[in-house]
């Protein structure tokens, strides 16, 4: 039986991308997308999901307000917060309120699917900022890395290039335009003083990216 999911996010392009990503998981089915908390509460009058992927910052009724109402009315529904920003206090409050996860919007698609599968199976998942995770490679913390000034997004793109993905695939994975991906790639090559994808892959392998 498939896990039925509602996506609540006022950024329609991002919601479309999330729908594509989640529907690519055989056990998932996105049954609705809504643009704010008020529309979400209306949707819950007629459909009952197993899980709601809920943007925190939305107009009319934000994700925090919506989550409280849902937890009171339908406590069996799993709620996962989606946010652009890490907030330790918010995460602590979400855990106390029974929210099952907090995922940052700059996550790459394969990792999003992995986390959502774990949550659907009963686990919890609360993201930490990329640069603060214990698994961050040491090279990203030294003076050399700081001098390069690679952003977490650029590191994600380097990883996907290393996996053999082209601009179109990376664009779909990250829900960004191809133009944005091309701009990131140019900046990466400039910062690292590299001339092509072969040199970039070699750099990534040598520095354990």
Automatic annotation (TrEMBL):
Please list the residue ranges annotated as the HTH luxR-type domain: 143-208
Q: What keywords were assigned to this record?
A: DNA-binding, Phosphoprotein
- Transmembrane ranges, per UniProt, are none
Q: Which GO terms describe its molecular function?
A: DNA binding
Matches recorded under SUPFAM superfamilies:
C-terminal effector domain of the bipartite response regulators, CheY-like
Give me any GO biological process, just one. Answer: phosphorelay signal transduction system
Domain spans labelled Response regulatory: 4-120
User: What are the 4-aspartylphosphate sites (modified residues) in this protein?
Assistant: 55
Ranges in a coiled coil: none
Protein name from the UniProt record? Response regulator transcription factor
* Source species: Pedobacter hiemivivus
